[in-house]
Amino acid sequence: MSTLLQDLRYGLRMLATNPGFTAVAVVTLALGIGVNTALFTAYNAVALKLLPVEEPDRVVRVTRWFESGFAGDIQRLFSYPEYCYYRDHSRAFSGLIATTFPTRVAAVPPGQGGARASEPEFVQAQLVSGNYFSTLGIQASLGRTFLAEEGQAQAAHPVVVLSYPFWQRRFAADSRALGKAITLNGTAFTIIGVASSDFIGTGAPPEVPALWAPLAMQAALEPGRDWLNNASEARVQILGRLAPGVALKQARAEIAVLASQVVKLYPAKDRTITVTLKPATYFGDTDDPRFQAFVALLMVLVGMVLMIACANLANRLLARAVGGGKESGVRLALGSSGARLIRLLLTESTLLALLGGATGLLLCVWANDLLRTAVGEVIRELFHGGTGVTLRMSPDVRVFIYTLALSLVTGILFGLSPALQASRTDLSLALKAEDTGMGPRFARSRLRSVLVAGQVAVSLVLLTCAGLLLRGLLRAQTADPGYEARSVFVLGLDFGDDPAKARRLKQRVIERLDSLHEVRSVAEARWVPMLGTFTPPVKVEGSHAAPSTLPAQVLANPVSPSYFQTLGISIVRGRDMTLSESDQGASVVILSESTARRFWPGEDPIGKRLKLDLDFSGRFATELQVIGVAKDVRNAHLSRVDPAYLYLPLHLHLGGRQFGTALLVRTEGDPRSAPGAVRAGLETVDKSLIPRLWMTSLEQGPLRAERFITQVSSGFAAGLGLLALALASVGIYGVMAYTVSQRTREIGVRMALGASRSDVFRLMLRQGMIPVAVGALLGLAGSGGVSAILSAVLIFPGSPDLLFGVSSVDPITYGAVCVFLAVVAGLASYLPARRATKVDPMVALRHE
Fold first, then answer.
1. Closest CA to 779 of 822, 718, 739
2. Residue 163, CA atoms < 13 Å, CB-side half-sphere
């Protein structure tokens, strides 16, 4: 213990005697460790941190897998009858709760004086089981939460609990709101309480609704729908609290047994094969390999910044070790062991790293609000979250442990090489040397050059990634999807559960919209561009294309005949489908140009046939005849043209699968006036459609989300690249400046023997740029690999590639980055080299 205290005192004394060096080192490490800590803090908040409930480690989320392998949000959804079976037969849980995704409702708060109080507001309401708050251990900040019986009898208890943000905003935090009625979709609900201010819901991703209502009131909040008694309607998420003394393994075993019983009780076309439990985090499924790959890529990129900081400080410590070579020699001569000397120097470097880590953590805490806002904005854009997203981004114990471990590893990483170098000091040289010590040897140090080359290589990798993403951003802002986006709006409408009634109501809506002066045309489609597609396997008849060019699956979308007119997609060959062909689900298909070229290269595709396996059974039972070829567009991703896309008749039988349809409306004149005209037109058809209506243009909806992903990734990469370049430039400058100071006498000798100032300048500049050139070559090789990974990684299924169609070996980007890096590195080397030319030979020769 006494030896450790001596080492600590020595390390602190050395740092205190070199305040300039210490300050630069701490700031450098703070930047490197800070960006790593900030990223881990964000990851911890969305993927690791448990829900803010009582004993969160006892709360789990129920998920399942299907026989078809279908994944996504449906993995977390169950029918209400399935939930009831799990709830009533489970013994491993003290409580199982059910929640829906928030639904849009028209809310009219009670009169509070003034015109604004009676104005309807469209807000997000969430249906939950009666034991929702009690099972989670959430107390009301005002009033009470639901009673168990309020979640039982259907339509018997019209009560709501307000979220704290909604209560503050809409009711001005007035406690007199309790007991008053708020009208939701025409039904009066009594306000019984306000949830605690720190409760942000149980959604994945998190979204704070305006209010919570009992599931038993589903019919009131969703007029025209009744899925509480329908075992085929998967609408609720299930969370549970483990009973005291029950381990997660036991609960998983029990839920698996209950799942096998539910499958027999409620057989479905897509059979559930596994039901399991996961920790209840904000994000949901963090096991998705795409999500894990994306997070790993980000950690690698920010880790590169820390590597540059470590190399920078290692070079500085090497330089200082040379200056302290005589002291090291004296210690060794007096009997100190090499291990003891290594421990002393590692203690100093570890203290530096801990100070840098503490400063980086303070920077992370200081930027907490900015980080929370940025992550919340990303969640809202990518997952269409509500305005109530308020993640807890402040560091917790997990972040502190991460920062501490990272700091300790960093201290050893950048301090080990200088410590080993000092422990191998030549005693005779060290004791004889004066000020220059090991200057000549250090000037030729391969380790120094390797560290500089490493900084340059890593900087080049980060700058290349940033350049490729910025190029992708420029393409994203100007990319033409191939169809009209600004004046085409997507209408989200709920027509009810009864298929016959829904079809009649939808037809009335289409006819009414067609009659509006502000509407040019209306179309119907199963999937909206950029928001999904169908990928059935295909077999092509009469094709002479090479098997390798024929995809095993195609992208497909059932559409109405007016789809092409509405989106402005031209039929370049053949004809459009007729209304009767669409209504009857005729065996016809329209291909994209790329599809025709791939399936029948150099041939006329009209009249050709292909077979689809619409039920994924391997039978390829659906045979279709090609009647037309449509212009190539970007339906799946804005970053690239669809490689193979089929337009099917709207009512083609899709192997028993049931999919809803969306309405697409193309407007005339100013698109900003369209929503009001459409809303007014729908009110004349059925006012119950309005509460859950959402309407957005393709430009501001799906296309904006695609571009937003590229904007975020580009900004992040550009920031990392510039930070890395700044650290590398400081490192190059520091090494060059120290080299000049150590070679003062050598420079003086050269000039005394006839070397001109230009000769000295070229010599020093050349020696400074050689490791830069080597690092650039290594960086180019590394950039190719990292950018290839970058182009392949998706943030989530269906997301665009991060490079937005830019080649991973784009010559413009690589050339620009190399020139930029060379200029910055040249400037970092130029200033010390220029200083070398001003050495006075007489002064240098008298130096020793």
1. 822
2. 24
3-state SS class at 108? strand
Gap between the Cα atoms of 661 and 306, Å rounded: 50
φ and ψ at 614, to 5 degrees? -75, -25
Other C-beta atoms closer than 10 Å to the C-beta of 826 total 15
The Cα–Cα gap between 523 and 515 comes to: 14
What is the C-alpha to C-alpha distance for residues 68 and 270, in angstroms, rounded to an integer?
Answer: 6
Rounding to the nearest 10 degrees, give the CA dihedral for residues 598, 600, 601, 602.
Answer: -150
Q: Which residues on neighbouring strands pair with residue 645, listed in sequence order?
A: 555
Handedness of CA 312, 315, 321, 322 (dihedral sign): negative
Count of beta carbons in the 10 Å neighbourhood of residue 179: 10
Per-residue burial over 498-527, b if 16 or more Cβ lie within 10 Å, else e, is: eeeebeebbeebbebbeebebbbbbbbbbb
Decide the pairing of beta strands 555-559 and 609-612: unpaired
**For residue 276, how many other CB atoms are within 10 A of its CB?**
16
Assess contact for 365 and 395: CB atoms under 8 A. Answer: yes
**Distance in angstroms (rounded) separating the CA atoms of residues 63 and 102:** 19
Is the separation of the CB atoms in 273 and 65 below 8 Å?
A: yes
- pLDDT mean over 485-493: 85
For helices 248-265 and 80-89, give the axis angle rounded to 10 degrees: 130
Q: For residue 359, what are its two tokens?
A: 């400063």
Q: Helix, strand, or coil here: 497?
A: coil
Measured CA to CA, the distance from residue 468 to residue 804 in angstroms comes to 9
pLDDT score, position 412: 85
Contact predicate 787/803, CB 8 Å:
yes
Can you give the pLDDT at residue 793? 59
CA angle 160, 155, 121 (to 5 degrees): 45
- How does pLDDT run across 289-330, given as a tens digit for each residue? 666 767 777 788 788 888 888 888 887 777 666 555 555 555
